[in-house]
Amino acid sequence: MTNPTRDNIASATAPMRGRRVPAGPAAAWRALALAALLAPAAAAAQSQTPQDAGAWRYGLSVYGYFPSLSGAASTPTSAGGPTIDVNADKIIDALKFTFMASFDANNGRYGLFTDLMYLDLGESKQGTRDFTINRAPISGSTSADLDWDLKGTLWTLAGYYRVPTDQRFTLDVLGGARMFNLKPKLGWNINGELDGIASTSRSGQASQSETLWDAVVGAKGRVALDSAQRWSMPYYVDVGTGQSRLTWQAALGVSYAFSWGELAGMWRYISYDMKSGSMVQDLSFNGPMVGATFRW
User: CA 216, 217, 218, 220: dihedral to nearest 10 degrees?
Assistant: First the structure.
């Protein structure tokens, strides 16, 4: 009978951390480089023959994700007119709805996994001064009513190879793609003195729908925390580019195994650096997750 904590890995997005996850492209590349260095080191430390491919094993994970949002939106107030620029994290503090699930299949050496997340975040602020016009500060008598909404679907699909290691540590080197379909919407009503913007542009609404595809590479696995391998620490990191300048994510958590699967508490960080032309320039999700994985 297989041991669920040894033969299966945690969801690609499951983590809990004891310290702040670094937020930046350079940190993502360093994390990926560390994962790449771990692979040959783990193989060299292997004292047993590589694990042979066997029967396929499967895992289905369902999580609740409770992230905060950080990012910036910019859109013209009219055709050829000045732009209104908003920091989403100063406007949005409400999570309307989120759903996340992942599925994993492996035969001990090779595997496939997919991860799907849907987010709906939004908030309205009345009389706020948390915006700029053409990136310039506004006058003291100016404020705005802002309505910021973001819906998004992230889908990751990847294959992986399990590097031979000892029984208390797994390391999967992965490659695949991530799709991000996002639909930002910004509504505004500007009040007070404001030079350079026509009265017809002081109220308006702008929305956009775009789908980004990026190739990703990374690593995932788990480290057993006790001799019975009931407690373990799943981890995940990837980095990619394509239709976005850079996307990366990192995850770390703690899980406890049962005969049917496991329960986990995690922390997940996802970052996107968009190319020019997008209504949203930079976007990140950062927060805890809790959920269950069912294995068979």
Answer: 80
Which region among 169-173, 254-258, 279-283 has the lowest average model confidence (pLDDT)? Answer: 279-283
Element spanning 125, H or E: strand 110-128
Convert the pLDDT of each residue in 215-246 to its tens digit: 999 999 999 999 988 999 999 999 999 999 99
Domain boundaries, the chain: 4-295
Task: Note whether 94 and 121 are within 8 A (CB).
Answer: yes
The CA angle 125-127-128, to the nearest 5 degrees, is 65
- Give the residues across from 47 on adjacent strands: none
Q: What are the tens digits of pLDDT across the range 148-183?
A: 888 999 999 999 999 988 888 999 999 999 999 999
d(CA 180, CA 34): 26
Architecture in CATH of 4-295: Beta Barrel (2.40)
C-alpha span between 129 and 144 (Å, rounded): 6
Report CA-CA distances (Å) from 195 to 17, 64, 85, 100, 186: 47, 46, 16, 45, 21
Q: What is the identity of the amino acid at 80?
A: G
